[in-house]
Predict the 3D structure of the following.
Amino acid sequence: MWKSVLQNLLYFIHELYPAAYSQSNWTCDGVDKALSWGAYCEKIARQSHQNGSLQIAFSHLARKSNMALLFCQLQDARYHLLKSLIHNQALETNVQEHISHVAKMTLGSTAAARIYEQVNQQQESYKQISAYINDTMNENFHKDLKSKLVLEVMDTLSSEQVNETLSALVKIPDGLNILLDDMRCGNVMLDVKKVSIGKMIVEFLNSALRSPRAPIHKCIVQTLCNLQPERLCDLLLCSRNLLVAFLAVLRREGQKLVFVEHPAGHSWSPQDLSSSFLTYKDLVTVCSNIHLSKSLVASTDKIISEWCIQEDGAIWNDVLSDVKIAVHRRDAFP
């Protein structure tokens, strides 16, 4: 029984709650159904005080993965759901009006008014920050402060606004590094707000990597390749999908390099300088950096080894060989 109940709670936490602030296809009926799920979670959370087995199971799961909501917050599940829906500015007008009505009925006029006041303040902050980013794109300014300001309003933005903000930020020298300083990916415990924002950043990077024709694609690839090795490993450990997308880009860039023979050996050079933006040395360097993480080595080497046996896999045999040399040299002379 408790296993089924736990699955229902996880559905609300991992599906409905994140969708409240990130999805634009909400309907009035969908809002009502989500609130019914919220009422269910509140009932279970109250009952758990009489039986601690569910809290223990939930706490065990929370240690293994990043939960967008804590168990204690489920006692106010509808409040958190409505708050996220109110922050979501990408919803249809009629849905927003329905949410406003439901929020007043469910939370009371005073609590609903406080949420709307916060939304207005944060939207105004976003406009100012967005203007600040655009006006100072190429200037030497306080990047650390700016990234923190972005984090303050990130979870109130629509998906389009998040993409616009992050696209502008990663174009700034070291901008992504600074943002990740605040996010601390990997196995570090994050607070609830940073968990949701961290997922937005990973989804943004994943989408950009999987869209070679997107204007931001080249910038994202080069930015990730130039990250500090430890930071890159932490980021790739955050998401298996991100790791796969990043490796797919490396393979695609490797396919753009052609074999060139020399009297003393051979090299791999770009066939078209206008379309290729990673060199052979870049591929070896970034693959060597990934080897700093034992958790990544096995999976990445397995994927690259599969490339080696493909028709165009000769370059990856050379890459793996040079990576082993680089790693051995690094281990011998740390």
